[in-house]
Design brief:
457 residues; BirA Bifunctional Protein, domain 2; Rossmann fold; 17 helices; 16 strands; elongated
Length: 457
Amino acid sequence: MKFQAIKGVRDILPPDSALWNRVEQAAREVFGTFGFAEIRLPVFEPTELFARSVGQETDIVSKEMFSFWDPFDSRLPYAIGAEEGRHRGMIIESEEEYGALALGDKFQQLSLRPEATASVVRAYIEHGMQTLPGNVKLYYMGPMFRRERPQKGRYRQFYQIGAEVLGSSDAPGIDAEVIEMLLAFFERLNLKGAILNINSIGDKNCRPAYVELLRAELQTVRDQLGADSQRRIDTNPLRVLDSKLEHEQAIIEKLPRIADHLCAECRAHYDEVKRHLALRGITYQENWRLVRGLDYYMRTTFEITAPGLGSQNAVCGGGRYDGLVELLGGPATTKGIGFAIGTDRLVLSRQESGAGEVAGGLDVYLAWFGAAAQPAAVKLARRLRDAGFVVELPAVEMKFGKSLGLADRLKARHAVILGEDELAAGVVTVKRLSDGTQQKLTEQDLFSFLRESRASD
């Protein structure tokens, strides 16, 4: 049997992995300057955490999560078959499978995380982080999982980089600063053509009335909508505004707009967000259809699109979720705002815009010849690596032509040649492989030469 990666997941190989590392390192550097610290989260959580936070009726919870019954649930009795399943790590597909053994208990269901905000909030509550001074600023990066049809830039195991601000303040300036940090990150990556879209979707005081108005309007055109939109009329009418079906666009354009139904407090908050964006010189587009797909969002929502991704061109989305901490059992006074970047889509956008090349690679191929040269080569390789250069040192002696040929295939910048003549003279021969020029240098001059060469690349 030939084993291959399952459809919808894939291996990230060199040199692409270098670009991924660069993207993730840029996030750490930029987010750190804004006072954010990294949190590392479990890959799976209780299913109920996502059902309660994301929303039971959302597509994510109702159709897209990878879920399973916990085979190590402590309530599973020690009975015939149960212990065997316990040792085998058996995944319980249904309560009925072990109904006779469970004696009426309900097993805990687990899910691979489809997103990370709920996990961050769970960790914030569990570890009492509300007692920390000021706002708690956290970022994360890692794989998420959704059971959906794979397509360009969208996978069943995908990756996100995200950030969350949790604290007692819902000041609009926080919203603007989070967006500023996000755009600074994209600027660091030299992402061209990124467009910021913003909106306000109100709060519990004004959004319910708008949702009912929207539902009523949608009912009048129900027979003109597709199956998904018809279902969403009953479950979450706001999601109809997300539709990408061409024949629904003209219908949606005539629907009531949330901006016309905001309460005074939400209107003031939205106006202040826009003022703070202007203070920072940030340009944006207002998009009344930007509602986000998760139930916990309120007031500010935002999305960034990038070129090279076709119709599904969103590379990042986020917004405010002031009631989520309370919903999950934390302090009612805690507010929150955050975003998630689709790392797969960000990397793809950079590659398709021609910005996917990453500086680096092999600085030196250290070719040594003769038994006496090997100890000197080993020591020189160590000193070069300590200085930060990437060095390839052959483990066995090779013929001159074969050794230089391998250096060329490895795309080394330089071949540093060390043989008996060089040892006797106290020098090395350095060959620039791009043009074939070579010179003899002392070790001290070699380090200076390599630094200057790297700086000029």
